[in-house]
Amino acid sequence: MEQRHAGKVAIITGAASGIGQAHAVRLASEGAAVVIADVQSGEETLHRIEAAGGSAMTFRCDVADPDSVAQLGAGVEAAFGRCDILVNNAGLIPSQPFERISFADWRRIIAVNLDGVFLTTQRFVPGMRERSWGRIVNMASNTFGQKTIGLSHYVASKGGVIGFTRALSGEVGQHGITVNAIAPAMTRTPGTEALQDNYADMTQDELYKFVVGKQSIPRPSVPADLAATLSFLVSEDAAFITGQTIYADGGVVRG
Ligand SMILES: NC(=O)c1ccc[n+]([C@@H]2O[C@H](COP(=O)([O-])OP(=O)(O)OC[C@H]3O[C@@H](n4cnc5c(N)ncnc54)[C@H](O)[C@@H]3O)[C@@H](O)[C@H]2O)c1
Predict the structure, then answer these.
(1) What is the residue-wise DSSP string for 16-49?
(2) pLDDT (mean) for 33-37
(3) Domain presence at residue 255
(4) Which one of 11, 12, 17 would you pick to mutate in the ligand 1 pocket, going by the greatest count of ligand atoms within 8 A of its CB?
(5) Is residue 16 situated within a structural domain?
(6) Domain range holding 142?
(7) Does 73 reside within a domain?
(8) Is the Cβ–Cβ distance between 197 and 155 less than 8 Å?
(9) 117-137, pLDDT tens digit by residue?
(10) Which of 42, 102, 124, 154 could tie 36 with a disulfide, CB 3.0–4.6 Å?
(11) 0.85 exceeded by the pTM?
(12) Hey, which of 21, 26, 35, 39 would you mutate to test ligand 1's pocket, going by the most ligand atoms within 8 Å of its Cβ?
């Protein structure tokens, strides 16, 4: 792979699993030193990166907890001195009909999926500003642009992520920092297992066929599709793109 991220330090939250793992493996394969920041052990991602000759470290972090994010900041600065690329990928994908969502459920989804983005971004923007270079990519969802069932708290959190992406891009662009979001289609990962509950009349395979049927490109979304989009957005080639939400979803939502 071309080493287009050589010399860059990239923090990827939620990189122990699913799409975040694919993001971490891809950026490391292109030369970035990757921090796998997750509430779970990131050992599997670390092994995959190291086996391919890349550089990474794991860091236990709960993005919804300000103290934990402060520890991540101190830990990354001690290890690498800086963060050039921040990928806000950690997220919970719940499945609950609206009337069964408790206020605690609502708060938890907003805390991880939206507060977490605020906390990590606020921690790392000052260093990017000092160095006049930074890339922030937030994981949104194409659920924001279509009919959904059982996801009102989730879609609200992702709408917040899209709004935050637009607003922050206006404040930090003058400092060489771009802020964009990626909105995927349903992509099979450990995080999507619970979605089945909303479609009890379908098997998992039927559910994925239903999703693919809405796409213009008729094949399932895979994490590598999203990692490829990420790699472009954090590269020099994307230096003039900011405030955007890229619907990398096979053509379901035309944003
Ligand atoms: N898979 C999809 O279909 C899909 C579609 C659209 C958007 N997304 C978004 O992509 C991102 C990744 O989703 P995924 O499907 O890979 O899910 P996943 O559940 O496989 O991975 C999410 C990771 O986030 C971590 N995490 C959860 N809470 C955390 C916290 N408080 N602090 C730190 N880490 C935490 C988990 O431990 C896990 O490793 C999410 O933001 C999700 O909303 C996924």
Answers:
(1) TSHHHHHHHHHHHHTT-EEEEEESS--HHHHHHH
(2) 98
(3) no
(4) 17
(5) yes
(6) 9-246
(7) yes
(8) no
(9) 999 999 999 999 999 999 999
(10) 42
(11) yes
(12) 39
